[in-house]
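step=encode ok
step=design start
structure_in=
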């Protein structure tokens, strides 16, 4: 038994010794063999580029015999047309000036006409007197890298096409959530603008102006929480609910109460949805001219009234609660008479919550006070001039506007020739 064990152990020792000997033999292979069969291509050329030495690896890559190249070809002869042009205009001059060029992507032309992408590093070998003697070049096979880069480029282009498709879809969807045109109200000028903060997402702002019973018109402007498809669904529901409710009962409080009931019933689960909204009922004043307007607000920023005499004030509706959150939301109201020359501005909070830089270069919100001061500087004004000024203001904020903004301005014109210039 012990003999078997000893014999077995002895056999194992012999195997171990043989393995070490074989490994040592591999380490003692000649430098010439390492050069010839290296995992990269080696090339030596004279200073004029004529090939003086080349390893077997590179010959196998290109399908040449050694005698086809040594003393017969220049390094640039192995390059494609574009590669030769780059070699002459950039690679070679840079090598002469610096003595080394590293990691340049070029393409070699094989004997069968196929192309081999490589990464090239060349160094100038100098003699003891410092004079350049030859150029040593190392070439790494870049086919896998080229395939990776090609696939990466393809994926990037595909992602760009997909992003463009989604942008077109978002733009089309956004357009369907806004009225194609506002109603033409006799004796009233109207202008609206929708500022898109991101072309990649559908916003939740909405507005409209539409006829109701004889001699009355309804208008609304609102902002749904969130962005994207979910917000768009709420926006669509809110718009059509408001219009339908106003036809049934145009009282502004009743209209918003109806919308509140619908949203609270539809979105009271794990993903609640709500909005701020202001609804107005417009009726002309046949005796004194102008219009009466009653505004009902559910948590919406106050409207601004710019009078013909240049004064400007906000129309606060304190206590108005978000629409859709509570089953019985409180809705605040205010009423005002618009006389000739007056302009009423409704807006969403994307305007007042835009990021701006203060005097001490701190980032801050634009705010209600700044907007009120801006409106006071405009008054007296018209609907179109107001919207144009707001559009220019939003442009000055640049990327500071991170939420969509909707504005709706209505103006009672002065007699012909009396409008502000």
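sequence_out=
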């Amino acid at each position: 038994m012990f003999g078997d064990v000893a014999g077995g152990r002895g056999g194992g020792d012999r195997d171990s010794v043989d393995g070490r000997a074989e490994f040592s033999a591999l380490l003692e292979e000649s430098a010439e063999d390492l050069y010839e069969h290296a995992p990269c291509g080696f090339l030596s050329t004279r200073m004029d580029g004529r090939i003086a030495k080349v390893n077997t690896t590179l010959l196998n890559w290109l399908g040449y015999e050694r005698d086809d190249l040594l003393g017969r070809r220049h390094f640039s002869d192995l390059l494609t047309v574009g590669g030769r042009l780059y070699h002459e205009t950039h690679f070679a001059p840079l090598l002469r000036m610096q003595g080394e060029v590293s990691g340049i992507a070029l393409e070699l032309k094989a004997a069968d006409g196929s192309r081999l992408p490589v990464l090239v590093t060349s160094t100038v070998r100098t003699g003891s007197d410092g004079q350049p003697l030859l150029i040593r070049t190392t070439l790494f096979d870049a086919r896998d890298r080229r395939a990776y880069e090609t696939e990466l480029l393809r994926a990037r282009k595909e992602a760009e096409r997909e992003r463009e498709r989604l942008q077109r879809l978002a733009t089309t969807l956004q357009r369907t959530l806004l009225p194609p045109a506002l109603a033409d109200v006799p004796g009233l000028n109207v202008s609206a603008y929708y500022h898109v903060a991101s072309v990649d997402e559908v916003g939740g702002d909405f507005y409209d102006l539409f006829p109701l019973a004889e001699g009355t018109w309804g208008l609304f402007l609102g902002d749904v929480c969130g962005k994207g498809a979910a917000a768009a669904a709420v926006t669509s529901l809110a718009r059509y609910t408001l219009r339908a409710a106003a036809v049934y009962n145009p009282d502004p409080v009743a209209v918003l109460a109806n919308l509140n009931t619908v949203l609270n019933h539809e979105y009271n689960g794990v993903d609640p949805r709500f909005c701020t909204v202001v609804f107005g009922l417009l009726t002309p004043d046949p005796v004194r001219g102008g219009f009466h307007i009653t505004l009902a607000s559910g948590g919406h920023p106050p409207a601004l009234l710019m009078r013909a005499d240049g004064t400007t004030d906000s129309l606060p509706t304190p206590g108005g609660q978000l629409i859709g959150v509570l089953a019985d939301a409180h809705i605040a109201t205010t009423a005002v008479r618009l006389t000739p020359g007056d302009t009423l501005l409704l807006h969403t909070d994307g305007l007042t919550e835009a990021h701006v830089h203060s005097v001490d270069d701190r980032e801050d919100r634009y705010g209600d006070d700044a907007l009120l001061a801006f409106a006071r500087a405009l008054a007296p004004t018209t609907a179109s001039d107001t919207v144009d000024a707001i559009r220019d203001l939003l442009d000055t904020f640049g990327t500071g506007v991170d939420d969509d903004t909707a504005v709706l301005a209505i103006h009672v014109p002065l007699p012909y020739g009396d409008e502000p210039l």
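step=design ok
step=annotate ok -> Residues 102 and 271 are 57 Å apart (CA to CA).
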